[in-house]
Amino acid sequence: MNFIKTSLVALAASASLAAAVAPAHAAATIQITSRDPAGVGFNDPTPVAPVGGNPGTTLGEQRMIVYRYVADIWQAQLTSNVTITVNAGWEALACTDTGATLGSAGAWNIWYDFANGVPGTWYPQALANKLAGVNLSAGIPDDGSGYGTVDIKTQFNVNLGNPGCLTGTPFYLGLDGNAGSKVNFVETLLHELGHGLGFSVLSVQTSTGNRINAEGTAYTPTGLPSIWEGFMYDNTAGKTWLAMTPTERRLSAINPLKLAWTGPQAVAGALATLGPVPTLKVTSPAPGYSGFYDYGTAAFGPPVVTQSAFGALAVVPADPVNGTGCLAFNAATIAAVSGKVAIIDRGTCGFAVKAKNAQNAGAIGVIIANNAAGAAPGLGGADPTIVIPTVSVSQADGVTLKAGVAASVKYGTRSQPGAMSSSFALDTSRRAGADAAGRPLLYTPNPLVSGSSVSHWDVSAFPNLLMEPNINADLTTTLVPPKDLTFPLLRDIGW
Amino acid sequence: MVRTFKSYALLAGVAALALPAMAQEAPVQATSNQIVVRDAGTGQLRAASPEEANTLREHHATGRLRAAAQSTLPRFHASGARGARLTDEFMSYSVVVRQPDGSLKEFCFESREAAEAALKAPVAAPQTLPTE
Fold first, then answer.
1. Which of A56, A98, A151, A490 has its CA 20 to 30 A from that of A6?
2. What is the pLDDT of residue B39?
3. What residues in A contact B124, CB-CB < 8 Å?
4. Confidence (pTM)
5. Are residues A446 and A426 in the same domain?
């Protein structure tokens, strides 16, 4: 049996909580309904101490207060004459001792061909209702679930923190962000409700590029587009998803750092929000080599410190027999790299092996030059004895840097050859997480990362954004620039 | 991750109904008595036979949909708007995984399958980076 009730009704008996759960004055109203049975989830009577500004005295009360708190954050931004409905439940979701499905959320109903929408285009119901000015689901009989017509369905893991379910690490139900070693429920819910309100490509199957058909029954090559697609511009293809074939959309979804959001609100917001790009800055006396180079970081050695010196560059000679940098360096190479940053081609042996050999030769840092096309790779491996920083560059940049080292020599003297210097700097001409035109990038890893693609901002965004696929610990509850780009994107699609 | 529309057959000896739930909710306006099914043979929507319609009504009456919705449902509005009620296959999923260094890493996925796969094979951990 389902117990449907609004959050306000559920908590009305507790006068002390009234102030905490009443919706803030807003231009939209979000109504939360619970489907939890007695004694479970929102109705869990387990006594708890107030925490982090959450005054609830039972586990169930505290859970609902977080929901209300997050809903208030959203409704303070949104405008709609139609009440936004969210159904919520606490259920047993997948768990292991070291991990858990925290929860899920999404638009539960979608619409097209309503007043004030783009014709023939799928929208999430909450946004469709706002644009149409009516509740499109009004009068539709329930499907037997008790929540069949709601805008957004959510569910979260009732067992989190219990033995066998990320043992000992429950949700943090405080409102102050001080989650410590617990899972910050406010941020998790804030993110997931964002998907339900429209931060999602919604009706496109990214693994095929197919769209939900007009009947709402299947992904097909001739399905209807999502309101997102007109704003999704692939810099390689030179067109939006709206103009693509399913195959083109599938390929665009795995085109790293090339799929940009063109909506004017988010683009303007990116300029105010995203910081300059951390980069390897190289200076050479030889013309044509100075500039900014993108780099990847290593899992071993000390972390890179932005805006710090790295060192003069030197090249470790190629060794096609043993692998460049894979053996202890000979005397000539030691002389070349001692006190400098060693550029070493990727291949044959581990990154950490190369770094350790360079360190043993007196190098103060290492640049691994990729040996295949593509972006600078992340460098895996482990060696706790490595104390010099290591980064990577792309194959093309590696070729340029090595040529620059050679070209710089003649700009010095016989006793003091010219050299290329390097530092970790910020490229203020670019925005971290945006394309060259300053448009924020969507997450398009290749290969497709287990379904987390496209409906998020790219992970290169800096500072971190709420709607990246990784929910980072340094997020705030602000949804607008200069802190975040969530609401600007939603405004672009009609909010 | 591939999201699929789940289906099941309702009537033995009759063409399998790919989307039985479509007919379990009456359209709002003029078509309120119309019950349609997808013919498993042709893949096309067609009016339900009286037997199929009765089975669907009985299915609705038993309340079996109180379990997680397995199929999408069509939506109709008097204005001409069309819609669909989705299923859990369309939800976004948050997952947390403890990393080798003891820290927690939280991810968001677009399908339940992807979320549960992440629990079995933690993603983006340093070990997943190339080492040479």
1. A490
2. 54
3. 449, 470
4. 0.77
5. no
